[in-house]
UniProtKB/TrEMBL annotation:
Gene3D superfamilies per the UniProt record, alphabetical: 3.30.530.20
Domain START: start-end pairs: 8-195
Pfam families the record matches: START (PF01852)
Stored SUPFAM superfamilies: Bet v1-like
GO CC annotation terms, alphabetical: cytoplasm
Protein's name according to its UniProt entry: START domain-containing protein
GO MF annotations in UniProt: lipid binding
Length: 198
């Protein structure tokens, strides 16, 4: 679940009516696309890669996380609770230098078996699951998913995400992380999963 924490820490700062996907990066077996999102000034992104591992190995890596506490470590995703066998609540907080206000995200992941070789983890905001934190903006709009598909190349991992970062942030900050954040996340995910099976 540290992989998802990367996303929550780095992607709350993405900026820009929904349109066609545009390939923004293709490197080290990772592809990242971006597009406008409905009537929002912020864009969404989609990242994909292939990993030679098992479906359960990917799910375990995405869902494992330390337990949530009021003083949990900044920048790391924490498991708040499991509402059912297939619904997980996570929390991550990220501190920023003044004058940018700190942000935190409470997200719900719902695991769905679409087919024998396809699993989807739907992501949505769950801002009311835990109390607000002082001097911290709580993300209210978050939507996306992880899609895991098994084929002859291994496991195809797709992550699509839209986040409204709340407040006001300079465009140069949001634009800078639009591709670099997801790419770093997927590179780490790919390396971690491949090392587990090596």
């Amino acid at each position: 679940m540290r992989i998802i924490s990367f996303l929550c820490v780095l992607i709350p700062l993405i900026s820009f009516s929904q349109s066609q996907w545009k390939l923004a990066k293709d490197d080290k077996g990772i592809k990242i696309w971006v597009r406008n999102f409905e009537n929002s000034p912020y864009k969404e992104y989609k990242a994909t890669t292939y990993v030679d591992t098992s479906m359960q190995g990917v799910i375990k890596e995405l869902l494992e996380a330390p337990s949530y506490t009021k003083n949990c470590e900044e920048g790391v995703s924490h498991l708040v609770k499991v509402n059912s066998a297939n619904e997980y609540i996570f929390y991550v907080r990220n501190n920023f230098p003044w004058p940018i206000k700190n942000r935190d995200v409470v997200s719900k992941l719902s695991l769905k078996q679409i087919a024998d070789d396809k699993i989807k983890l739907c992501i949505s905001a769950a801002p009311k699951e835990i109390p607000l934190v002082k001097s911290t903006l709580r993300i209210q709009e978050l939507s996306g998913h992880w899609l895991l598909e098994e084929n002859e190349k291994g496991i195809k991992i797709t992550q699509q995400l839209y986040i409204n970062p709340e407040g006001t942030l300079p465009p140069f900050i949001t634009n800078a992380l639009l591709v670099t954040g997801p790419f770093k996340t997927f590179r780490t995910l790919k390396e971690t999963l491949e090392n587990i099976d090596s």
